[in-house]
Amino acid sequence: MNVALASDIEVLARFGRALADPIRCRLLLALRDAPAYPSELADTLGISRTRLSNHLTCLRDCGLVVAVPEGRRSRYELADERLGHALDDLRTAVVAVETDRTCPDAEAKDCC
After folding, report:
1. For residue 64, is pLDDT > 70?
2. How confident is the model at residue 14 (pLDDT cuts 50, 70, 90)?
3. How distant, in Å, are the alpha carbons of 15, 84, 93, 101 from that of 97?
4. How many Cα neighbours within 13 Å face the side chain of 85?
5. DSSP line for 50-77
6. Are 21 and 112 within 8 A, CB to CB?
7. pTM
8. What residues pair up with 77 in beta bridges, in sequence order?
9. Average pLDDT over residues 13-32
């Protein structure tokens, strides 16, 4: 595995792209609670395994999750336990939202 340290800006941009999709947010929150297998994650999120696979690939490419081989299966977990703390901090942060405004990139479907 080729692991390179990303700059602060790259890290934040990857995190932002990962969090831009509600399914990826739900996936990260599920993995914050505990590592899981794709079949469990698909059932928990109520999505197809194909769709889940695409989102897991994005999160892996962003460097936020890792696949841990276990025999013929792979278990997914957050790449660093500190990501769970960061998710908690973001989740509980107070955000000043004007109800008549939407995020300009809310419809963007790009990935990492």
Report:
1. yes
2. confident
3. 20, 24, 12, 8
4. 3
5. HHHHHHHHHHHHTTSEEEEEETTEEEEE
6. no
7. 0.79
8. 66
9. 93
